[in-house]
Every structure is written in C-alpha cells, then in structure tokens.
Amino acid sequence: MTVLDDLSTGLSENSPKRDKLRLIEGDVRDLALVSRVIRDHPYVVHLAAQAFIPFSYQMPLQVAEVTLWEA
C-alpha cells in the first residue's frame, strides 16, 4: 500500500509502521507525481481534503484542487 501525503496536518512519525506501507511526501495536485505513484496500483482511494473550514474561505481554489482531484 502506498500513501501520498503532504504532511500539512500531520507527521510521518505518526503513520503506521508496516512492512507493506510506503509513505511518499508530496502534493496530490502534482499530477506528474500522482501519475508515478499510482502507475502500479490497480486501485486508488482518494482521501485528500482540506479539513480546516476557514481555508475554504481564505483559499477556495486550493481547497477545490485538493478535494476535487480526479485521475
């Protein structure tokens, strides 16, 4: 399993320690990175979202780009 996370609200030390888990630090809006990460994965689960509501007022485009990602 591969996790792509920008770690904007967390720390890599908090991710589960499992042999089959690979953590990649990056932005879901980086389409070239996302393409490389998902290349060998038959399924993708998108859980990226800006959870802090005031961001949606302060930076609406960024929030939409992260939350409404599509492959």
Describe the protein's architecture and organization.
It is a single chain. The protein has 71 residues and is of the alpha+beta class. It has three helices and two strands; from the N terminus they run ββααα. Strands 1-2 form a two-stranded parallel ribbon. The two termini are 18 Å apart.
Helix content: 25-40%
Query: Which of globular, elongated, flat, extended, rod-shaped describes the shape?
Result: globular
Going across the major beta sheet, what is the strand order? 1-2
Query: Span from first to last CA?
Result: 18 Å
Major beta sheet, specifics?
2 strands, parallel
Structural category is alpha+beta
Name the poorly predicted regions.
Answer: none
Short account of what is shown:
The protein has 71 residues and is α+β, with helices and mostly antiparallel strands. 31% of the residues lie in helices and 11% in strands.
Main features:
alpha+beta, globular, 3 helices, 2 strands, 11% strand, 71 residues, two-stranded parallel ribbon, 31% helix
Secondary structure elements and their pairing?
Elements: E1 2-5, E2 22-25, H1 31-38, H2 53-58, H3 60-67
